[in-house]
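S1.2 Input.
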Amino acid sequence: QLVESGGGSVQSGGSLRLSCAVSGLTFSNYLMSWWRQAPGKERELVAAISSADDHINYADSVKDRFTISRDNVKYRLYLQMNNLKPEDTAVYYCCATLSSRYWGQGTQVTVSS
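S1.3 Output.
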C-alpha cells in the first residue's frame, strides 16, 4: 500500500513537501518515483530514485526546484518542491516499481499565481 500526503494549495514561489508511506512490500528493493497528472494531460514522470539511493532522475521541468529522497528504514518516499509554479498544479502519485508497479491514490497540489 502506498499513501501520499502533504499536498495542498500554495501561491507561486511557495514550497510543499510530499510524503509517501509504503507498506506491504520490501521498500528497499523498489525503484521509487513521483508522477503527476494535470487535468486533460497524461501522467508524467517527475522524479525517480533507485533502490540503493544512488541514481536519481528528474524531469527537466522540475530540475533545480524539486528534490526526491527516500528513507529505507522508515519506508518513506519524499518530494521536496520549492519555487512552485502554476504549471506544477496536478495530482501527484507515488509509484513503486520492481517486477510489478504499484501506485498510491494521489495527492492534489494546486499552485496559484
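S1.4 Remarks. The chain has no helices and eleven strands.
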